[in-house]
Amino acid sequence: MEAKFIPYSKKLLKGEELKLESIRHYQFMETRRSVREFSKEQISMEVIDNIIMAASTAPSGANKQPWMFCVVTDAELKSKIRVAAEKEEYESYNGRMPQEWLNDLSYLGTDWHKPFLEDAPALIIVFKKSYDLENDIKKNNYYVSESVGLACGFLLQAIHQCGLVALTHTPSPMNFLCSLLNRPVNEKPFLLIPIGYPAVDVKVPDIKRKEKNAIITYY
């Protein structure tokens, strides 16, 4: 099938305007932080829909869009997710994780308790699809992890853009999410993202990001 092409249309910035916009955006994104304490203030489903649809504009292999975003707001289901996640996290903190990993996490003050899974008004669980099912026929997807990772990056940027906060949570293994959410066999959990407003007077670790010369090399 021959691809159909349409004109690309977008305002182009140049010179000083381009430089100022790049500075503005960098400074805005520099304020993004992972937050582990959430207000219980609700967020409208329309806002969450728009944030997810922004994430879905991410590029993907052959435009297969191999993702599914599951939004959980039901208190009982969030509680079940917390119980299952804490079970896996307890095992991780008490035997699965090597000491080097525990040492690297120690300054953050994290442990196996995950109250944010109930406190946050919504959980967005991102699933990756290694293949699609069309009339019970498998249709392969391509660069699945890369594509879903890009979509999650877009998702976090959209959350920040809207003045909300989030946390990337990866209890390992995450297979319990497949059964709790009754997902089809072609979907595997990729990331669990609580989303909401920050709790009042919330504090975050005083961390520093790497300097420019540590992350950029020009040729």
List the main descriptive attributes of the protein structure presented here.
single chain; 219 residues; alpha+beta; 4-stranded antiparallel β-sheet; 8 helices
How would you characterize this protein structure?
This protein is of the alpha+beta class. It is 40% helix and 16% strand. The chain has helices spanning 15-30, 45-55, 75-96, 99-106, 116-119, 144-161, 176-180, 212-215, and strands at 67-72, 122-129, 131-134, 137-140, 165-166, 187-196. The strands form two sheets. A four-stranded antiparallel beta sheet has the order 1-2-6-5. Strands 3-4 form a two-stranded antiparallel ribbon. The chain is globular, with a radius of gyration of 20 Å.
Could you write a compact summary of the structure shown?
The protein is an alpha+beta fold. 40% of the residues lie in helices and 16% in strands.
List the helices and strands and how they pair.
Elements: H1 15-30, H2 45-55, E1 67-72, H3 75-96, H4 99-106, H5 116-119, E2 122-129, E3 131-134, E4 137-140, H6 144-161, E5 165-166, H7 176-180, E6 187-196, H8 212-215
Antiparallel strand pairs: 1-2, 2-6, 3-4, 5-6
Helix pairs in contact: 2-6
